[in-house]
Fold this protein.
Amino acid sequence: MLKVLYLINHAGKAGTERYVQTLVEKLNNDKIKAYFAYNESGLLVDRMKELGVDTYRIEMKNPFDIKAVIELNKLCRKLDIDLIHTQFLRENYIALLSKVLNPKVKVFYTNHFILYNNAVLRMTNRMLNPLRSTIVAVCNKGKDMMISNGVDGKKIKVIFNGVDINYWGEKIESTMRRELNIGDEEFVFLCASRFAHDKGHKFLIDSVAQLKKLTDKKFKCVLANDGPLLEDCKKQVKDLGLEKDVIFTGFRKDIKNLIYGSDLYINSSEHEALSFAIIEVLACGVPVIATDMAGNGDIINEQTNCGVLVEYNNPNALAQAISRIMGDKELQRVLGDNAKKAVKEKFNLDKVASETYNLYRESCKVITKK
């Protein structure tokens, strides 16, 4: 059984952390023996402990932290680790440098972002290529960006993110409308992104103001989550006179409950690789409007026909798309049916876990033949 150390700098509660958690849930004690190491503590540490995974802290100050390299090497030797699975550039570089001290360990990297690297990082990427084993890009544009950043394209495989279709597809009776005092006849669209600069909440709220000019239909925009820009967004809603149209719920753990109480989901982000939130919503049979950014087109396209893509920071285009779906029950049904089909066929967690495990084995083929 392969021994895999999942290494992450910040063990928070975002999509990358969900990716790690779901892989561990699917593979640990069946296909692999999982271990977990982190720098900054967060919700994922608690979840790993709940899953019975041994956890360790390694301080990682920067991508070239030699002390962290040494500590990681010691931990891998102590646990007899076969493969380190990293998620961000910082821990990926540290893991690659630790391979100089322990060539037996393979370094597996999943890239969750589409970011252009500066000249120094592009040069470093090329220098570190010989130490890399396998790299996973969660969308096609992510692969293209990594190649432009100097990463060896021959080592990159595209595996779309996936979710547990049995969990998300099992319909529940939502309590959201009753809790938030929303009428059954009101059209509800939900956004559960964290209130951060790249999530596009200002753009979304501006589109709500535009939507009021386009339709007389009753609707509610539900914004769930917290984050540094929450208060700014509340002020924007007040300044635009949208207090009766926009509801802030704060951070919620019952996202499935909110999804099943909604008619539509909005992803207004400026940057995305392959959004877990979008896939979870689609698995529930709820259509999505998303910005035409990065990996969103891998999910929503003519083949899947499970939602609509709109231009980022174009409030009028988003408002028109919402109005169109809001006024067409048959379109809502078709998009919802196609949403479930797309997740089952392309974004299924079982498929992701199986393909990832096969790449683990391929990376460690010398070990697995023993």
Notes: DSSP finds 17 helices and 13 strands in the chain. Residues 366-370 have pLDDT under 50 and may be disordered. The first helix runs from residue 15 to 27.
